[in-house]
From TrEMBL:
It comes from Peribacillus castrilensis. It is a multi-pass membrane protein. Belongs to the MurJ/MviN family. Involved in peptidoglycan biosynthesis. Transports lipid-linked peptidoglycan precursors from the inner to the outer leaflet of the cytoplasmic membrane. Pathway: Cell wall biogenesis; peptidoglycan biosynthesis. One of its GO terms (biological process) is lipid translocation. This is Probable lipid II flippase MurJ.
Amino acid sequence: MPTLSNVIKSVGLVTIIAAIGKVLGFGRESIIAAYFGASSMADVFFVASLIPTILFTALGSGLQAGVIPIYLEKKADNPKKADEFISVLGSFFMLIAGVLTIACMIFIKPLVMMTAPGFSDSELALTESLTRIMLPSLLFFTLSYMATGVLNANKRFILPALTSTAQNTVIIAATVLFAAPFGIEGLAWGFVFGAASQFLIQYPSLKKYGIRPIVSFLPHKRQIAQTLFTFYPIIIAALAIQLNSVVDRIIATSLETGSVSALNYANRLLWLPLSIVLTPLITVLYPSIVERALIGYQSFLNLTLKGLKSLLFLAIPFMVVMLISGNSLITLAFQRGAFDASATDMTYRAFLFYSACLPFFALRDYLMNAFYALKKTKVAMYSCLIAVLLNVLLSWVLSRYLGVGGIALASGISMLLQSLYLFGYLWLKTGRTDKAAFRDVFQESGKLTIIGAIIYGIALWIHPLTLSLPIIMELVIITLLVFGLYLGLSTLFKVSSLQGMKKVRPSK
């Protein structure tokens, strides 16, 4: 198992790479916003990307999350047979991806009408055309997620982390080169080429593990059947997570023009701290949590709860900065070209509520991985299905009063309740003698809540004094103020995560 220094080094490298990818991601979104703004054309593109996105996330996320526990378990017995079986499994999922792509091509019209009921006839026709262009990306994304699962299981995090950089670079180039002569279709082709780049950048390392196409499924039919039985809750859970986005965008099509785009831009901005700081920690810890689960429940629980406290500790200051300076962040990131002040205002309405629920987006993903490591996949699946039902109900009700802000708030509430459900399950299933670690989590959460509230009040009081400054200066001052106060108060309150993050040692 990796040493402490290796874990810190891996998290640091993945964080740096993720930061580069996210900067490029914002470059991509800024360029798209500059060319298309929060317009009906942009709405059509984001809705058209829904169907391939739902499919590749359901297959890809299931494959990536499910591969790591299975691969590590088989690798402990026989590394060569583990590589061979993962090759068979990847080939089988590629076959499924091909069948799904063809099926969606055939039934494209009803699928588009279902995802965009508020669109006009011309918008629906264009959505169909763009969806056909982007559907083959499902094949590339499936390959990419399989490669990511294998490489992460082998503690190779660098190339998987670079996939976002590769994809964003390709989409930026495609938008700049093709948006003017080909319009929104040029952007759709960039989406496909970007998907292909995610796999191609990982392929050289994947070859080292003997991963290759194997289409002789019959000799492995029993193992495939057993694996699919394990996988299906993960796939359904991933599909349910994507349904949250589908519900959000379907409801947004019934609101004012530009609502779908505003929701998309706000969501992209939300994922800035998630992708740069929080997701790398989740990614690096996951294989180690799987290894701990193979050792024993207590070993698993200790590492899982330490990681949970670290996530909460990291999330709070980012949440405060986003709540205080959300409007400035949106202006800096997107307001140029076709993206005007009214688009900023609409996006901010969604971003404000997303920001308030930032910690729960990270905790949901982290706890889902913990349950996959325990092979409690059905529990994770049920939590996602419940969250989807809650999101549907809340989005419909709250959007009537708060517009796109209501949709974002509904997503945040469903994330909160799902996180509480998963955490509560661990609490109830843990023996009385093992619950001492939970008390530390409760104490830590209470301290961080108090610290966050104090800092938010101080920053809210000071923020008006910075509004006359250039946006960059305002953001720098508020960020330094929040993080400085946060570290100072965390030291004063003796928050254990300052030392606890150093104690996250995934070893025996």
